[in-house]
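Final report, Chapter 2: Outcomes

The project's central promise was a pipeline that accepts a single protein chain and returns its three-dimensional structure in a standardized token representation, suitable for archiving and comparison. That pipeline is now operational. To close this chapter, we reproduce one record exactly as it appears in the project archive, with the input sequence first and the structure output second.
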Amino acid sequence: MFAPGAGFDYHCIPYRDTDLLGADMSHRDMNQATSCVHAGVRKDNTFNAVITPIYATSTFAFEAPGKTKGHDYSRTSNPTRSALEECLAALEGGARATATSTGMAAEATILHLLPPGSHVITGNDIYGGTYRLFSQILSQRALSFSFVNMRDLDEVRAAWTPETRAVWIETPSNPLLNLVDIAAVSQIAKEHGAWSIVDNTFLSPIFQQPFALGADVVVHSTTKYLNGHSDIVGGAVISKSEELGVEVAAMVNNLGTCCSPFDAWLVLRGIKTLPLRMKQHEANAMRLAEYLDAHPEVERVYYPGLPHHPQHELARRQMSGFGGMLSFDIKGGAPRAFEVIEKLKLFAFAESLGGVESLIEHPDTMSHASMTEEARRAGGISPSNVRISVGIEDVEDLVKDLEQAFGS
């Protein structure tokens, strides 16, 4: 196994579970719904605040030379950010989490740990921003990438080279909701001494547990479901091993890609309702998927919860819920898609996802526009495709809005 961070000095990166729950109860032993409320939150020893305070400070006073109360500078660590990181590690079942300024910062940070000349295998239908980072930025800086159909394990194996150091798994994929068999691909990676990195943004730890399926690293855009209120941007890297987690924290410190205390506080607040929100997102998405699946203007619906989804059985095996994202192909292509979208009242015509409000977008010209047209077509993204992030509104109001927009 390669040692990506050899030579870095990690001693200055503190990480301590300081929950005041008592020795007889650790948040890692709790059920997820309880961890969402309690993990990492009790930080105030002075006033015993029930909610984690926002430590809006750039620096911390030393008690003596070489002696602090656990933090010295907020780029390195901050109590509010540490609270969020403890919570995320507990929810994902990882050894350590590091919160970053954005989801893209999380991606860039973990890949900075790969040795120069490393090769990464990933999907050909991933998020456009990830594709851009890989193909336009990191590929110019001593890394190489293969974009393959990761549903086909033979394609994954065929793409392997002696320099392959990681597989990047996005499942469900954005925007076509294709699934990757995490256990199978992670096993291939392990056989070659490589990392398996899973982007778990679409499902959150409530509906998918990549570490239990063999993954080494989980990344999130905390902007999305974890925060759930469309009021911050953030990211996170969760590591299965403490050793790798220390390396990630050091890299965040070196790159300065850390999450701000206020954004960390908002994500921590959002997580408290995560299980409830995910259930409603899923219920609403299923209702809309069934509605669209029966609509005469819709050619195809992409949603793992539908029995005819080609990977429905895999979804039932590796996911505990089908999520709140869906997409569909509309007859008439982009012109008809824009006609319908512009008539909607409740769905905001916007990028991003995972908030309490419903959003609708056109991947070919929006979230995936940074991909070349050739790459979009190779990944199955067409001008007919429309993506919906289903919110937690009353679902019948959402159906009515779609009906009037279609002119039904």
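Archive annotation: The two ends are 58 Å apart (CA to CA).
This record, like all others produced under the grant, will remain available to the consortium after the project formally closes.
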